[in-house]
Design goal:
7 strands, alpha/beta, seven-stranded mixed β-sheet
């Protein structure tokens, strides 16, 4: 696993559209802490895997995923691992300014001998690491439904009881990948674009997931 490196300053977090502990983003930070509280209440004492998926493209699913992961990392008793599962349009490594020189998720699934630690990158947020998607791929279903993908998530969660996993999934609209990923997750957070996604499209997206796993719908104004 790579060295943690220096922590991002608040001004750098804001430039990357990341929450931090200072008062300038208190409202946004409190909103993500609220989602954190909801998930922890649902889970009890156990760590878990959360899928974050947008209703449609450009509704801000990736924005919510990375900030929710950051909110968990704010708790010094917890660590977060964000996994970019949006294989067509991966952007978490760009958002964090990470250069995935040794590959990402798809590279590991195809060549597991390289070791999972080689694709876990520090983000500049203490206790938050990123697994980027790796090379772009049109169809994630074949990877996400594989035994190897399930085994990787089980291993990542079970190795450290204080580790919480967040899957940044592709939008529900136009692809079955979010539904496939939900089978690997304990909980689902659905992101709707405020003023972008209609009630009908939100209800249609909700119908893709097990109601027992749905933690809620987040209305988001940031793309």
């Amino acid at each position: 696993m790579r060295e943690e490196g220096g922590a991002l300053a608040p001004i750098d977090c804001e430039r990357k559209r990341l929450i931090h502990r200072e008062d300038s983003v208190r409202q946004q930070s409190d909103a993500f802490r609220g989602i954190r509280t909801r998930l922890l209440e649902m889970a009890g004492e156990n760590n878990f895997v959360t899928l974050v998926a947008a209703v449609s493209p450009r509704s801000g699913g990736s924005f919510v995923a990375r900030n929710l992961a950051a909110a968990f990392a704010f708790d010094e008793s917890k660590t977060s691992l964000l996994i970019d599962c949006n294989l067509r349009y991966p952007n978490q490594h760009k958002a964090f300014g990470v250069e995935p020189r040794t590959g990402g998720l798809i590279d590991f699934l195809e060549h597991p001998s390289r070791g999972i630690a080689s694709i876990m990158y520090p983000t500049g947020v203490p206790r938050l690491r990123l697994i980027p998607s790796g090379r772009a791929h049109e169809n994630g279903g074949e990877y996400f439904s594989s035994f190897r993908m399930r085994a990787v998530l089980d291993s990542l969660r079970c190795r450290y009881s204080d580790r919480y996993l967040f899957l940044d999934g592709p939008p529900v609209k136009g692809s079955p990948d979010a539904r496939i990923l939900s089978d690997l997750a304990d909980y689902v957070v659905l992101v709707a674009g405020y003023g972008r996604d209609t009630p009908a499209s939100i209800n249609q997206a909700v119908a893709n997931f097990d109601p027992a796993k749905l933690a809620g719908v987040v209305f988001n104004q940031s793309p």
